[in-house]
Amino acid sequence: MTPLPAVLGFAVSVGADDHRLSAEPARRLAVRGGSATVDHAGHGLSWTGTAVTGTPRDPALSGQDGRRLLLAGELYNREELALALGDPALVTVPDSHLLLRLWERYGGAALRLLNGRYALLLTDGDRLVAATDHAASLPLHLAVVRHPGGRPFVRAATEAKALAGTDTPARRVPAGSALIVDLADPDPRPVPLATWTPPVSRRILPPHAAVAAVREQLDRAVRARLGDGTPPTVVLSGGIDSSAVTALAVAHCGTARTITLGTDLRDEFEAARLVVDHLGTEHEEITVDSASLLRDLAWTVWAAEITDPDVLEYLLPLVSLYRRLPGAPRRILTGYGADIPLGGMHRDTAALETLDQVLAADMATFDGLNELAPALSGVAGHWTTHPYWDREVLDLLVSLEPGVKRRDGTDKWVLRRAMAGTLPERTLGRRKLGIHEGSGTTSAWSRALRDAGVPEDRIHQAKAAEAAALYRRLVVEGAHPDDTDQDTGTGEHR
Ligand code: IOT
Ligand code: MG
Question: Which atom of ligand 1 is nearest to the CA of 242?
Fold first, then answer.
């Protein structure tokens, strides 16, 4: 595995050879990297557009004969996939080659075998397949453009902004699915193929077995994400989620680089330092002035392409942090997402019925929030990956019965016990603090609005309005975050 995936994102159109005439130029993606032109014609179909590359390799588009594949992102179960193909040597070939081999053998069923962080576009004859991973952690958007009298074509991009501003509205490929389009049909309807769904049933394991299973799966997920063995960077809050990832990364690489963000209002430096001293990581603290943190709201909306103010408060400090990491593009591991299957955001919910219900609700509503999108770090040229949303880790965590998620009055019990002996006791027992709280983001944004005269009971509404206005300018209209007003965080975007 290379430091960064070969392809980080793309904006292309695919259709009959004459479609190029009507394919308008795509708008710029937020993800930064190398740039590769996608330009191929053959077997009656042509591909045109651009790919953003992480590790430049031979053409972004691979395949032969009537098959072509454009794969952004990476796979995490390569050994199993090679095994399924009966050739362990395939573990060393690029992910795109592995996928083409799987497609040859399994067709669309190949997509149900993948554990990865990816968005892909594949053509097989006239059939076009647009697929994203189980979590849509690399978002994919698709528009089918119909020509009266001509053949249809498809525009597809890993960011919605690239497809905005054209007549044909795009749709998002739902998490855990593919959309299949028959380009020979003059009026094609994308046909969905389900590849994953969150479990709604729960498994009973003896507590010690649940603890062991979590440890084993999380360890495998971290290892699969380590790339070429270069110590990765972990964004560390000092909470159990990111501390566990750091510990497992250190166990495999000998060390890791860790980074913690704080603001003039608040930080978690001490909690992070405890873990750093215990594990011996190469650590960095970054302090951001809360006013400049708020200015990164425009970058966050640009990258995440969402309007939900609560989720933006989780993502803003991370985007701010990624934008302040100079130097070569990094492979970054996060602890993001652990709180969803473990009910961490509901740290005070004692009733197991309620805990399991809110968890089911969170698993039913994550799609489209883009919390895991690579663009969040991609605006600064870095690649992130999230071990807790590894397909196998997620399946396990979601399906464990709630009595091991909350036990002995402790939230996220099973994860805390899984890390016993590896992290300091104080870290294992540390009470959950959300990133929006620990970085002072929620209070900084509220204060800015209050100072701008917004009454207390309208603050949440004002945040939503500001996010919506930014979304309109940056995603729908295609402005760049540097061109938005410098008063982000004060509601002055309406
Ligand atoms: P939180 O769990 O606090 O943070 C998410 C990750 O961001 C951490 O695991 C860590 O890797 C990184 N991080 C947090 N704070 C810092 C910091 N000060 N410096 C460096 N890195 C840091 C919200 C939350 O509480 O984040 N995220 C929830 C899920 C949100 C709910 N979403 C939903 N229902 N769809 C989570 O599960 O991570
Ligand atoms: Mg967390």
Answer: 9
